[in-house]
Amino acid sequence: MLKAGDPRKNDSGWLGQFIHFAVAEVAEKRAGSESVLTKLSELMFIDVIRRYIETLPQQDTGWLAGLREPTVGKALALIHARPSFSWTLEGLARQCGSSRTVLAERFTQFVGIPPMQYLAKWRMQVASEMLNRGNTNMATIAAETGYASEAAFSRAFKKMLDVPPSAWRLGARAQARAR
Fold first, then answer.
1. Looking at the structure, do residues 32 and 79 belong to the same domain, yes or no?
2. Which of 30, 63, 66, 107 is buried most deeply by CB count within 10 Å?
3. Structural domain count of the chain
4. Whether 43 contacts 36, CB under 8 Å
């Protein structure tokens, strides 16, 4: 139980309630507490991110800033949910209920780069994480990041990250062994 004077007691909104529930779960040690605490921590994280986004200055750019704008936020959600889909600017705009021009302008304004460039970078981030895990073959990584072949994926990866995917994977394994 939070005591009078504890700054968390005065916290309004979801975060304060989540903290209260988390403290109760820890104190009571009931069956399923670990699962409840895991879900509460996820909800707390989301609430903290929401609060952070709300405090960003209007001129800030980046994907978090893009989440504030409904059309850009929808485009980001689609790209993140389906990086392997063969997105085009027109198709993405249609899914967002926007024109290509409006989507491209707003996306660039809020995120700082055009949507198709962001998609390419996101795909490479997903691919690099899969390579770091080391248990997925190149054909699967290529398919899951929207490339028709291993060769196309390898060319795009090397062009964007200045190293072939196989070398990236070896580097990740070497770092893991060094730890």
1. no
2. 107
3. 3
4. no
d(CA 6, CA 138): 53
Measured CA to CA, the distance from residue 168 to residue 2 in angstroms comes to 48
Are residues 46 and 11 both part of a single domain? yes
Domain that holds residue 36: 7-55
pTM of the model: 0.70
Question: Going by C-beta distance under 8 Å and a sequence separation of 6 or more, which residues neighbour residue 35?
Answer: none
Three-class SS string for the chain?
Answer: CCCCCCHHHHCCCHHHHHHHHHHHHHHHCCCCHHHHHHHHHHHHHHHHHHHHHHHCCCCCCCHHHHCCCHHHHHHHHHHHHCCCCCCCHHHHHHHHCCCHHHHHHHHHHHHCCCHHHHHHHHHHHHHHHHHHHCCCCHHHHHHHCCCCCHHHHHHHHHHHHCCCHHHHHHHHHHHHHHC
pLDDT digits (tens, 9 = 90+) for 149-178: 999 999 999 999 999 998 998 885 555 455
Residue (of 37, 42, 121, 38) closest to 76 by Cα position:
121
Specify whether the CB–CB gap between 62 and 111 falls below 8 A. Answer: yes
